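hey m, so remember when u said the tokens were messed up on ur end? i reran from scratch. heres the input so u can diff it against urs
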Amino acid sequence: MQRSSGFKYILSGNKIRLSMTLNILAFAVPLFIVLMLLEFFYAKRNNLSFFNMHNSVANVSVGILERLLDVLTVGIFYFFYSYIHTHFAIFEIKNTVLLWILLLIVTDFIWYWYHRLAHEWNILWAAHVVHHQSEDFNYTVSARITIFQAVIRTGFWGVLPLLGFPPEMISSILLVHGLYPFFIHTRTIGNLGILEYVLVTPSHHRVHHASNEAYLDKNYGDVLIIWDKLFGTFQKEVKDQHIVYGLTKPLDSYSFLWQHFHFWIELWLACKKEKGFNKIKLLFARPEKIDPDLREKAEAIFRIRKKNIELDKPLNKYVIWQMAVSLCLLFCFILFEHYLNFQAELIVSGLIIITLINAGAIMEQKQWIFYLEFSRLILFFGGLMVVFPNTWFVITVLLSLAVLAYFIKHIKMYYLRLVYPS
């Protein structure tokens, strides 16, 4: 599978100049990182304990994977909207200012019901729970969106092309609708006065992310708070009340994979205990219907360790450097996506995903990360051989990997001493 070249030759006077097609959406990555860092330094300067390094790494890791997979799936989502619009549209909607406003309102209305059902149905909560796992509340939490959520939301937004909204309008409004929530994941912004009556504000969204009993299952809106007020799910933030963020039963794990799949496993264990139609009923029951003791059972099966482990400074720096490299790779991946063939996409995606799993495993002090490191090395050099298919280069790489494989036991011992000096 080859992409068409992103280069264009343009005639200008008597000269031909080379033009490149870049995906400018890539610049959202450094923009959001800068805003996260500004919030971090503001909190640090004012002695506000809004950030935990390991929680922030876990948060950003989830966001990196979602952005990565979004590049690979955005065409599928667009085709989904286009197909429904072409074959099943009820109305013919034109591109006018009023209809853009109507589209934003309808999009937000659909989001409200998707979001509410994602808290009320186990089958949807399994995808959405990742967004609520962080016990911090800052801009990094906004990154906690998974590809599972993206797929499910797209299914809900299939109503938009069915109504007759063109896919071009839908894709554009979803960019705006997806940008706004970033700014409401913060504790640094207080009450916004009159805007509190119409928009979802940081104050409203702090309530939504709280695990305090009085705040549970409130404020589902994304841009407009009017839906919560209309359907009885609004709760105002109470001044001076301490908010506890995260799940009612904290996950206690930095594992990148466990964060994505723990509730699917708990739901599977719960369904195994039910008989007949009760299995289906449980899928659409509320999350509190799941026995909380199943978490421990699932953790025992997969040998999940708790996260109360102190890491030394060199190891923390190693994790941060891995995240920095992953973000740079993600930026380049999105920016130059028009120039990447299928093999290149697989190699870069593999390197990023292995790195994200590796960072979480280090924070959990897993012994098997050595094999992740080795597989990442093999993938990296394999990618170089694809990019530079020179015979002598390939032979050199293969011989180097063979030497490493021969001394793998000694290298593993040295690596684990280096990474886990204790």
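this time it looks ok to me. The radius of gyration is 24 Å. if urs says something different then somethings off w ur setup not the seq
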